[in-house]
Amino acid sequence: LSQPVQENDSLLPKMPPFDYTPPSYAGPSAEEILSKRQKFLSPAVFHFFKNPLNLVDGKMQYLFDEKGQRYLDAFGGIATVCCGHCHPQVVDAIVNQAKRLQHSTILYLNPAIAEFAEALAAKFPGDLKVVFFTNSGTEANELALLMARLYTGCHDVISIRNGYHGNAAGTMGATAQSSYKFNVVQTGVHHAQNPDQYRGIFGSDGLKYARDVEDIVTYGTSGRVAAFIAEAIQGVGGIMELAPGYLPAVYSTIRKAGGLCIVDEVQSGFARTGSHFWGFEAHGVVPDIVTMAKGIGNGIPLGAVVTTPEIAKVLAYRSYFNTFGGNPVCTAAGLAVLKVIEKESLQQNALTVGSYLKQRLTSLKGKYEIIGDVRGRGLMLGVELVRDRQSKTPANVETLHVMEQMKDMGVLVGKGGFFGNVFRITPPLCFTKEDADFLVDVMDYTLSKM
Ligand code: PLP
């Protein structure tokens, strides 16, 4: 496919300077770790990288391997590390809480849990004021679907093709990509046309896609539904922005059918999109239930569901219980994350640096035919590679190859999309303009060698 990277090439882009030296590493070698992984860990995601890195340290937007080699993390632990790796304020909050009380359940009172719930609720408009904590995005979406089904007394759920909502029975049902589905029972979910402006059957006409949801309600259900669930921007599906006008029209259809509107902000929340704190805000809608995880704890396992007091009542006095949900160490991290986003103006940074990065990636599209599309908002960007712009044949082998080459040059990006041909760029929100330049220069260099 390409020539190997020439290390003495004077055109090789230079990584921006960064004033941090990781502590020396005395643990097992990368080869030993790999052999342990092959023996003792599930083989589920081994296909991602040919030569996975052994990462032992992280500082802000950078990761370090066991040799102290620095990598620019433009994937952010899959859109999870929002403040930066090991952000000092988040680390302090975790350590201080862990020293006082590591675990407490929802049966008792605890300040770390209640204070974070209050601060999180303050981030929402209208009546969205009641918080349930979970451990992950999957659990948050499972709970959201359960609440909608209990509240409406209906079972039918509508989700969008190409969406990803988790890997337990209910959320796997709502997920609509064959590579994330298995032959287990996942009943009651209908998958609507994807309002994908690049590949979708109706182009950018949000209202036409919304009519498909109306048809599903009419022909696929009793006319009453439990819920509609969608990501504000599809993440795993390849950073796909919903066509304009889609969400308001669908919300109106669903509400007429007695259903609740659930927005999955697992990737798009916590200021990532730059223009707003939550992805749904860009669509001018207010959902009934919002789910979140990833960025909420800057990498600490935590998820949440936020809804209205009226809907929250469905769980009142029921034995709905989650041992670790709302663990005080995790919620202390969550509170610190909100403070850091505010104090360091990370939303504004996501907007400024994200717009600059998108503009530079779009210029790259002018240079390379293989780039079919550049899309996304803030620091949630996608670059789709195609073999031919006309046919949009996915360049999935090339995507993996470029991703590996970029990794060898010190830049980590993710990949996704139904065909695995979309670079996913979701770095920590402290990403700088210099980091953006380095990323684009490395992508440029790599593409120029193909
Ligand atoms: N929802 C979205 C949009 C996601 O991207 C993911 C994970 O990638 C999930 C839900 C599931 O979250 P988790 O992996 O924390 O269970």
From TrEMBL:
Similarity field: Belongs to the class-III pyridoxal-phosphate-dependent aminotransferase family.
UniProt cross-references to InterPro entries, sorted A to Z: Aminotrans_3 (IPR005814), Aminotrans_3_PPA_site (IPR049704), PyrdxlP-dep_Trfase (IPR015424), PyrdxlP-dep_Trfase_major (IPR015421), PyrdxlP-dep_Trfase_small (IPR015422)
Coiled coil: none
Transmembrane segments: none
Keyword Membrane found: no
UniProt organism field: Rehmannia glutinosa
Keywords, comma-separated and alphabetical: Pyridoxal phosphate
Keyword Repressor appears in the UniProt entry: no
Cross-referenced SUPFAM superfamilies: PLP-dependent transferases (SSF53383)
Protein name: Uncharacterized protein
